[in-house]
Structures are given as C-alpha cells and as structure tokens.
Amino acid sequence: MGLGAAALPILGFTGGAGALTAERRVRLRALGIVIGDLQPGEHNAITDVVGVKVGHVTLIKGEGPLVEGEGPVRTGVTAILPHGGDLSRSPVFAADFTLNGNGELTGMGAVRRTGLLGAPVFFTNTSSVGAVYDGAMGWMLEQNPDLFKGGLHPEPAVGETWAEFLHDTTGRHVRPEHAVEAINAASGGPVAEGCVGGGTGMRAYGFKAGIGSASRKVPCGDQVYTVGTLVQANFGRRPQLRVDGVPVGREITDLMEERGGKTKSMLAVVATDAPLIPSQLRRVCKRVALGMARTGAISTPGSGDLVLAFTNGNRLQADETPAAHSVGMLTDRCLSSLYKGVVEATEEAILNSLTMADTMVGRDGNTIHALPLYRLVEVMRAHGRLK
Amino acid sequence: MSRLRALGINIGDYLPGRQNAITDVRGVSVGHADIRAANLRTGITAVVPYAPDIAERKLFIGRFAVDGGDAMSGLGVAEDFGTFSSPIVLAPAPVVGRVYEALIRYGLARDPGLGTETGWPPVVVGVDDTAYNEPALTYEQLTQAHVHEALANARADKVVMGDAGIGGGLQAFGYKGGVGTASRMAGDYTTGVLVAVNGGRAGALRIGGYSLLAGGEPDGPDTFVAIVATDAPLIPRQLERLAGRAVLGLATAGLWGPYTREGLVLAFSTTGIVQQERQGPTIDVLSVDEEGLYPLFASAAFAAEEAVLDGLLAAGETERLKALPQQGWPEAVRAMQQDAR
User: Fold this and answer.
1) Could you tell me how many helices (H) and strands (E) chain B has, helices first?
2) The dihedral of CA A162, A168, A169, A173: what is its sign?
3) Is residue B303 part of a domain?
4) Cβ pair B287:A324 closer than 8 A
5) How many CA atoms lie within 13 Å of B306's alpha carbon, on the beta-carbon side?
6) Of chain B's two ends, which shows fewer C-beta atoms within 10 Å, N or C?
7) Which of A127, A215, A265, A337 is labelled catalytic?
8) Most A CBs within 10 Å, among B118, B282, B283, to test the A interface
9) Closest residue of A to B62, CA-based?
10) Is residue B99 one of the residues assigned to a domain?
11) What is the ipTM of this complex?
12) What's A36-371's CATH class?
C-alpha cells in the first residue's frame, strides 16, 4: 500500500526531480505513510473528539537582522478548548505529566489539586506565557465574574516552547488580546498544522515543524471512543528522526539549520471522549512519551516535554449543590486500546508537524528547511515501506 | 483507661461514630496479633477494608508520604492506579517480606476461584519498633502464622488500642506509644483513622492544642503510619488529598513535627469499584463534588488528632517507658477549652 510515485502530483512539483522549488505541503497519510493500525477520525485531528475546538493566531512579520522589539516576528498562539461551553462552570477531568521539566505549562494548580480543567489550553513561545495567561484570564473573568468564588479556581493552561532561532523572542509581540483572538478563532473540523499558531517558529529534528495533530478511533466492546493529540513540536536532532521506524534522519543529512541553536521541547495535549478519571488520565499522559520516542526523541535534559490530557466524556457541573455524582471510568482492557490510540496519534501528530511545515527564514537570515517530502517518500520506498 | 472524650476533652468538630474507631466505617475490620517473648514485645495489626463476603475487592486509595516516607509494598499499583485489593498490614520493618508472603498465601487460600491479581499486591507497611525490639530477634520470632492470626482476629466493632498488635513496641513523645483510633461523622459520611503512634519528641505533645507536659525519655524512632477509611465515595486524587488532610491532625498532636524522619498516610474509600459487573467497557463510580470534600478533610484531621491521643492513653506501663500520665492535664485542658468558648 502506498502512493510512492503517485505522490509526485500531490506534492505539486514543477520541473524534474532536480529542479524542485517549493513542495506543496501535505499530511503524512497523503504520502501513503500509515502509522499503526487503528483508524483515524474524520479529520485525523484532535477536533475529532466531539466538542474540542482549536484556533490559531499566527504572527509573521519582517525579515533580516534582529532588531529587538521590532522583529522579525515568527510566533503565535494556539488555543485548544475542551468544549465550547463555559469551562469554568463545566470543567473536564484532566491530568498533566512532566516527561522532562525544562519548560513551562502554567496553570496546573487546579488540575493537580482537583483533577479538573476549567479553562482553555494555550501553546505559545517561551517569553509570551504571561501575556497569553493575562489575556485568557480576562476572557475567563468576562465569561464568569464569579470565577474566584467557587472551589475550583481554574487557571488558563499556557505552555511554551523556545522560538529564539527564528523569532524576536524579547520583543513583546504576543499580546493578551491574541489569546482571546485564538479562542474566538477556535472551531472544530480540520486543524491547520505546521508554521501556525504557537508552532510558527518551531523546528524538530533539524526540520521546520510546529503544530501537528492526529486522532484514532478506539473500539471497545460495543463502544467506539475517539482520542486525539495536538503537539507543538520543537525537539530532537536530525540523526534521531524515524518515520514509522525508518531512520530517515540518517539518510537526509543535508538541509540542516544554517547556524547553531538548540532544539528544545514538546508540548502535547491529548483529548478523548472516553470516560476516564484523573488518575487514569495521568497514565494516558505517559503514553505520549512513547509516541514521541517512536519518532526518535530521547527527551534531553534541556527539553520541556510536558503533557496535558483531558476527557470531555465525563461532564461535571460545578455549580450544583455538592453531592456525589456518577462518573465513568474505562476498564483496564479498554484503557489498553486507548493507550494504543494515544501512541499512534502522538507519533502521527509529530510527523504531521514536519510534513506540513514550510521552510522558514527568520531573524538574521536563520533558516530552517522543511522536510523534503519527495525525498522522504524515496527513503521510505528504499526501505520497502512504499511501492 | 479513659479515652480523651471520656475525660471531657473535645477535638475539633463533628461527632464520632458509635465506637469512635476506624471500624465505624462500615465494612472495615481490624485485627491484631501480639507477640511477647523474652526481650520481645511486638505484633502485627491488620486493617481489612472490606467485608469477608465481598468477592471483587478493588478499592480506591491515596497516599501522603511525609518526607518521602513510602515504605510500603503495593506502592506501584497504589501510586499509578490509585487502587488496592488487599488487607493493609502494619508489621515491624524486618518482617515485611514474610508478611507479604503470608498475605499472598492468605489470598490464594481464601479465593481459589479468583485470579491471582485479586488481592495482589499485598499492602504491607513496615513500622520501626526498635524502641523495644532488636530487629534480629523480631526477624527470628515473628512468623507467617502471626499474620494469619491477626487476620482471623479481625473485628468490625471495637478496636483494641494501645499495646495491641503493632502497638507493642512503639514509643511516642517519650512515653509508651501504641495503636490509636477515632472517627467522625460529617453529613452522610463516616471517616475513621487508625494511627501507629510512634515518634514525636519529648515535649512535643499537644493535647487539644495545649502543650502541658515535658515528656519522659528522649527520642526514639520518629516514624508514623496512619490509615484513613471513609465510606464517602472518593476517587484516587481525592483520597490523596484526604490523606494529606489527616496528617494535619497528626501535626496538631505533635506526632508530625520538625524532627520527624518520615511518615505515611494511606486513605481509602470503601466504595469505589467493589463488586462491579464488568460487562461493558466502562465502570460507573461515584465521586463527591469538590465542595463536599472539605467536611471530609476536616473529619480526617480531627479523627487523626484524637486517634493519637487515644492511642497514648490506651498504652500500658512498661519497664522501659511509662504511659502518658493522666493526672492534672485533663482538668487544665478542659478549663482552657471552656475559656475558649
């Protein structure tokens, strides 16, 4: 199975093999590369979990030498909403996990204390966490002026990865209103990937990366649950890169960043409609690490590899009189199938961030090349994975 | 021997259950085995969290480890899944392995029809009773039969406190230590605590918040274990929090103090996923809403504090350590509590 040679029209080449200009970016599956054996959801994205919405604000401005405070600007905000209702009054069960802690995912207070997420999740660049939190908090207070009166005290969950190689990090380019803009732009359906939102300036395995997403349908008994992952990929070194086990990073050794710089981190959010309790969601978070490892990463000491998982399959009303409510939890047998979905969706989401990202030139002419898809297909074919 | 309440001293809010013991939580029973020999006064205490006729016995549990004090078996499942399905046995540290083995055999003998993962892994907490006992002698004398004895002795009503079971070799605040227990009823739910009262420096004891006594001998092993049971439907994260609140009660009594080496609190709910029909892909469990947790947290703290004090009051005299004297201070504490109203 696989498109192989038939992928060339999809990639939109101009000229012969040696004369490619800009490849059209496509998702991994469109190249005929299939991760795992569970079926993806309709859009193969985190939004396949019904109710989940994703929105991006992308800030790209200027070129040439870095002038702190002015640009070039290569950043943005990605907002992920567990559902479109009032999250503070209708929180979802959630848990987080730190694979390697050199990063920030602010707003885990209520999540760790109560196992409840009552706010949207945001991904952005390292120096913009405060601005995004600020904007999000303003929005939350407007939605619910009684935000601090209840027992939950939700906080916006704001994660970051380091964009300094391309972006004017010290410039105050992300403003609080961008968080609100990302919330307002959030919708279901296909999720834009690559150089968008918080992933705009990011790179992985020495290729341009950023936002990626994928989903899986998980059958169990007479039910079919959906699990989806959205990542902001900013980690890994070229020789490590594996695509469905094929050591692509050892075969495409050119197109490296034209100057140094450190890759850093991965943020991942996992959504599902399967009923899980927080202790189960913490276990789900850990499986993201296994999906990440399948693409080759080792989660270095300098990485901020942080995971948040939530389910909107157990809906709680925070404003009823205190009582005991019934919540569902998957049996271990079904949890096992869900783990498989998480690993596959994480692996595919990371690879989508690579196949969907364009080459980008940022500050001081720093360049991160896109993964060349024609050559990716060639390597996969040479390893017997595509015809 | 009087209990604190009988001396007219109240700890905190809410009323105790019928026995003012962890067994007020329906389904919970406690059994002891006492081991006495030359130079040996030790024992085993088993907290059985479910009635004998319950087949599928997976319950939710949460831990609070003081200064990393996680010396228990069954940690992996308790920590990652928030569940357990075995009696919780407090035993002297040298024989944890032997107790573990005894519980495996107990489980297999009891339920030949059930899978080996039922009742596995055993939850055994090692307690430091070297104030009285040489580890080598404990290791030599304590047998698996003692574990079975403690389990066979388990009762769902009165809990013998003081020198019973694991209480035999404990010391606290310079006095003879022991097993203590208490309970509180808040709203629809009952929460009970059992404490291995072990540790606390001489002079650190607080009774009803008042420090009255200089204490006896200087300090012995400074590690404690407390078990909290509730019939409130709580899920694992909530039980972790409940365990953390119970330890507040131990701190108020002085058992967890600045010099404490380590301590462990395990909190479980008798609801959860006991006897679930596993046909569909999901199991339904009840969980108390956030606002409903706070009376439970307070219950655990008050019961824990009272359990420490009742454990001290129940301990007997020994050659090595005296029991907490019961003269003078009750009247003073009563007077101070009266003034405070």
Assistant:
1) 7, 13
2) negative
3) yes
4) yes
5) 33
6) C
7) A265
8) B282
9) A279
10) yes
11) 0.86
12) alpha beta
